[in-house]
Amino acid sequence: MYNILVCDDDKEIVNAIEIYLEKEGYQIYKAYNGKEALKIIDNKELHLVILDIMMPELDGISVAEKVRKDKAIPIIMLSAKSEDYDKIKGLNVGADDYITKPFNPMELVARVNSQIRRYTKLGSINQKEENDDIYKSGELVIDDSKKEVTVDGKNIKLTPTEYNILKFLTKNKGKVFSISQIYENVWEEESYGAENIIAVHIRHIREKIEINPREPRYLKVIWGIGYKIENI
Amino acid sequence: MEEKSILKNQVLKILAFLTLPIFAMIIIIDCVLIYYSVAHPEIKENKDFYDTDMFIESYLGEVERKSSSLKDEVEEGYFIDEYGYWIDPAEENDRMPIYVQDGEYRIYYQTNHTKKKFIYLLINEETKIAYTNIQQTAKTNTLEKLKQEIITNNKYWSISNNQIQTNIDRLSEENIVRNEDLQEISEFSTNKQYYTAFDETVQNLDSTNDITLSRALYNQTQALYKYAYSTLAVSIILGAIELIYLIYSLGHVKNKEDIYLSWLDKIPLEILIGAYSLLFLVEAALLVICFSVVAVDVNLCVMLIMLVGYFSILSALCGAGTLLKRIKVHTFFKNSITYRILKWIVKKYKNVKNTISANKNLGGKIALYFIGMIAVSGILILVFGGFGILLDIVFWIWCYYKIMKEVDKFKQIHDAAEKIYKGDTNIKLDESLYTGVLKELAVYINDIAGGFSNAIKESLKSERLKTELITNVSHDIKTPLTSIINYVDLLKQENIQNEKAKEYIEVLDNKSQRLKKLIEDLVEASKASSGNIKINKEVLNVKELLNQVTGEFEDKFNGRGLNIISKLPEETIYIKADSRYLYRVLENTYSNVAKYAEENTRVYIDCILEEENTVAIYVKNISKDELNISADELMQRFVRGDKSRNTEGSGLGLSIAKSLTELQDGTFNIYLDGDLFKVAIKFKRV
Q1: Residues in chain B closer than 8 A to A102 (CB atoms)
Q2: What average pLDDT does chain B have?
Q3: CA-CA-CA-CA dihedral for B160, B166, B172, B177, to nearest 10
Q4: Which of A73, B94, B328, B572 is the most exposed place for a label (fewest CB within 10 A)?
């Protein structure tokens, strides 16, 4: 049983999040401003904090800064502020994720699960011996011996072409490849007008491995240049 | 404070003012006394006046004075009445003195009203006319009687053909000092008998001789000279103290800080001087009259003189005071008629100059200047002649220089106006450099520039405020929207059997999602149109980008049976743009196609290299609805091809795409041709 603190000055949002997360089997603590949140953080053993930014008394940024002074609990920021500047600021003061309102409830649940797994379990996996056939970036793991792909521990089903493209990009994570480079490397022959096909495959892969395909974590699109797997 | 109050003590001041003339007069009198006593040592010897040199000198002087006056009468043939006025026998018969015929001699009695102290008798042997100032009585109606009258006096002196007869020892033939006076008298006495005498017993007013005055002076000096030195010293000290006090306290009045100006100080300088000149003249006349009293009563004379002198000095003090005050408050020259006239002239001159420079009629003004220049030039030649031509050349060069300076100023203003016309409103002309019409022009230009620049600033500011407002409002909308979306989602998860309820929930879900998209688009559109976005340009491969975007939309297009026909050039083409925002442009364009293209038609995506290194991307499709709207309208915010607005979308997509393209220095245009819908995006090739 993991404990999650949900803090937002809008009670209905807190209640809705409670309903979703309780379904996933989490214990929920509720707070409606920054001061209440800090009280609960000090007194309870928590595994995750969801913080709104714009709150009375004490805002989410200040709460995150205070928590980060002595605690390593994952923090997810939840805010109506959607500017790049706001996201960067939230992540820089110590948040682990940033979700903008209005959010998709399933996305929120997925991100919560991801943070909890990472905080509680995955630390030990990192200790496992590296296998030659295993390619990974963050929580994206490709086990080439089993032809198996997992994200946040979840098994992902891919077509053989998609698998080959993902394996090629993950093997060379951090590097950007243009469509024709990917084609030539995966098909091992010269590309003739097959560019669209690669772009379509990439989109399909993104939809399968990413929580929010419009804001991908692993498979990034560099418009006008190519694609890459982020090195996390 | 102490000093101040002394300076402001009115009683003390009046006292000093009234006594100062007394001291001044004492000083004058003392000086006269001292001078006399020093000049005539006999005074100190206590001699009788008639024994002194003073008497001898004044007597002989009187004789000479009378003789020269008589000489004129004898030679010119007129007479003098007892008051000293001339009488012309030819014209003024009625005023002629009385005469008595004594044998062949005619005796004229030139005075008949008063007895004189100094008496004379002149007998001209050539004309047989005798002149005398003795009164005509029975005792004096013959020459012999007249001679007796004179000789019986205890002081008499006569001369005839250079022969002196006298009972004054010091003036006798043997003792007399031979001087110029005597010389003249001797010459005059040729063929004449000249008798004179001094009658001490006569008490009448007689200012016609010097002897009485000398006697009075002698006697008074003898009585007073002993006190002169001490009174002089005391008077000088006291007078000086009072004078200094008066000078310092001048103009200080109780309860007033500034120097007080009375009516006297406000009289113009010229009038003051004129009035004082007149006053002094009157005072001088009065003094002269007073002097004439000396023969009658010396004491009375002195008292009168002192009285007149006192008021003279008092009035002089007042005059000096007001002059000093004027100097103190710096109005000495200002408070004069001359100054006022000069000031008036200067003011008039300035007025005329201003009228000329303020004259709106430029033509007239230039004509005035032109006439002035020609006049000056003509005067130069007239006055200096040949040299004037040289001066003229210098003058015309100077005029040319002046005109060119004005032209230069005009050019500056012209340049400023030109800059404003070209859009640079950040202009400020230094108005102080210009005069007249040019100055007005400069002021107007500055105002216009300032107005433009303000308007631009204001419009930028209002655009920014609008964006801020939209951003803030969107934050406030997003929070309740989150609840709506979440609870609709929760409702969907409830196991609801009612079909209608399910249908309603579906509508709520769609519309809340649409609202979410609308808000995001609204914020983006406002940011894009106000330029409130930071663009990071980088080099992009257009072909790669188009392939990527086409890939992203393939499923959506296929879903509506749209067949994509891409025509991309062989060579690789690079442009400079912000990849994220250029993707947004293409995404919006493709979305538009996906929404509004007729199902089961072809969509053409062409990338063409056009002239002047322009890269053009054309996206063409067949619209499913009739396009009864202009291309410009389509690109405005909240405008959609279907007026009914049934389809999803905010109506902002193309507007955002256009704004974003222009922010990246590209162009975004829509062309409509029947049902053909064409988007053209153009960038410069790198």
Answers
A1: 478, 481-482, 484-486, 512, 516
A2: 84
A3: -70
A4: B94
